Structure formats: C-alpha cells, structure tokens
Amino acid sequence: MTFLWPQFLWVLGLLPLLVLTYWWLLRRRKRSAVRYASLGLVKAAMGGGPGWRRHVPPLLLLVAIAALLLAISRPAAIITLPLQQETIILAMDVSGSMRAEDVQPNRLVASQIAAKAFVGELPRHVRVGVVSFAGTAAVVQAPTHSREDVVAAIDRFQLQRGTAIGSGIVLALATLFPDAGIDLSQITGQRNMPQALGEKKDPKPFTPVPPGSYTSAAVILLTDGQRTTGPDPMDAAKMASERGVKVYTVGFGTTNGEIIGFEGWSMRVRLDEETLKNVANLTHAEYFYAGSATDLKKVYDTLTSRLVFERKETEITALFAAAGALFAVLAAGLSLWWFGRVA
Known about the structure:
Radius of gyration: 32 Å
Structural class: alpha/beta
Oligomer: single chain
Number of domains: 2
Strand order of the largest sheet: 5-4-3-6-7-10
CATH superfamily of the largest domain: von Willebrand factor, type A domain
C-alpha cells in the first residue's frame, strides 16, 4: 500500500497520546473511587458489569480514529477492478492459409470455435463486432449485444487470398469511430465507404490521445501469416495508438513456415511475430502466441481476464473513511447497549 499524501502520516503519532490519555483517566478514576464509603458506589463509578467490556468501546473508537487518520494520507493499493469497456472488435484472418490442418480440424475452424467461446464468456453489457480480413477487410458484424448474431457472423467466414493485416486494424478503428473520418480508400479504393459505416460528412478535427488511454473499446487481432497486401500494419497501429485503442494481437500457427496447398496451388505460410509484437507494444496492449487449438483457447481465456478485469493502483481513501465511521458507530452502539451511555 502506498500513500498519495505521505507527509500527513505524522498524525498517527497522536494515537499513543490517546492511549496514554485513556490510561491516565482510568487511574484518575480509580483514585477518585476510593473516596466513596460504599463499595456499591465504587462499582457503579467503575461502570459495572464484566471488567473487560468497559475497554471494548474505547478500543473500537481508537481503531476508528486510526482509520480516519490514515484516510487523511490518501492510501492507494493495487486492486482488481472491473473494466468499463463497452465494445470489443474481433479482427480475424480469413486468408487461404487458415485452411492449413496443422491445427485440427484446421486453423479456421479452431479459431472460430475459440472465438465463439470467448464471446460467450464476455459480460452481457459488452458489445462485440467482427471484422474479417484477407486480401481486403470487411465488417462481418457491426458491434452488437446479440451473442447469437456474433456467433452467426463468425460461422459465415469465407476464405480468400491475401493477408492485409493493416486493413483489418484500420477497418476495426473505422467501426469503432464511424464519425472520425478515417480514410478507407487504401483498403477498398472507394473514398465514400466511411459513409456506409455511418460517418458524418464533416468529421470532427482529430486530436491524438495517449496510447492505451481509450478504455471504452479494444481490438483483438488474430492472424497466422504475414502481410502480403494492404497498408503497413505499423501505420495502422499508429492510428490505433493515436486514438488510445489497445490492439491485442494473437499469432496462430507455425513460426517456422509451412507449405500448404489448395485449389491447385501451394504457398509457404510463416507467422510474422515481430510485427504482431510491435503492434501490441505500440498500442500498449499484449501479444499472445498459440501453436494449437488448446493454446488458442487458453489465450482467449487470458484475454477475457484482461478485458473484463484489470489490476491497477487505486485510491482507497473512501474505504478507510468508511471503516472509521463503522468502528465509531459500533463503539457508540456497544457503549449504549452495555452501559446506557456513550463513553
């Protein structure tokens, strides 16, 4: 635990003084009691009842004062809190290499199964959108609360040629910020496509924000290859970074390269881990590698915890203040119950 105002911790030095004052008052009370001739009057003056009970309310009051004095120093601690993210975009690779069967039954089906399980674990208040990318990128499902629509969109994936990782990131950003005037001509060659996503004709001026500072949304990008077309993924990552959006990247498949063939042609597929790591680092997110369907399931489980909860330093002054008030009320209540007075 740390303190935002540690210079005020000196006030805790008042606690020993309070203890000494209480002890002095007890001794003074005992000296005064011997002046009475009646033993019954002495017992009455001492408070009556079991001797230990008379010390409980003062002890609780001392704890209450200690909590309140600590609250003055504004304590902070690393605690786990629920995130307030409202939207998550799944940007998924549907290039021909996802047909490879090194992951059973194949990479595409394994990624679909893991993604659907991930969506099912998210809180219901989180909207989920789906962007697919191969040679081009497409919004398969606009952000929605309907898990059924998201699952249906993932099941509709169709394999295509090419791998445009940058296009997937840019389109995910355009989906998150339809009014931002993001130019999608580099993806589709059509400058009016942002309007199809709901963009206004006169977008607001763009002002960069700190990387990773946009907590209302995040992008999860999964790919098994390396860029063959489209914009540079690092340029796209810079766009995300300037908008504060975290892009979590997932590398799927082999890092050594594998030759796969379909429809009469073959190709070598190799995962570009360096680029994926750089994208994640630039946007203050994380990179994950999954070499199998089991690994991919574990990655999505980890992402669930990352996107639903986070550990961060949080000021807990209110907790100490509430504890102080609770102990003070408890001390007063016990004193009234046992002795009929607040003392």
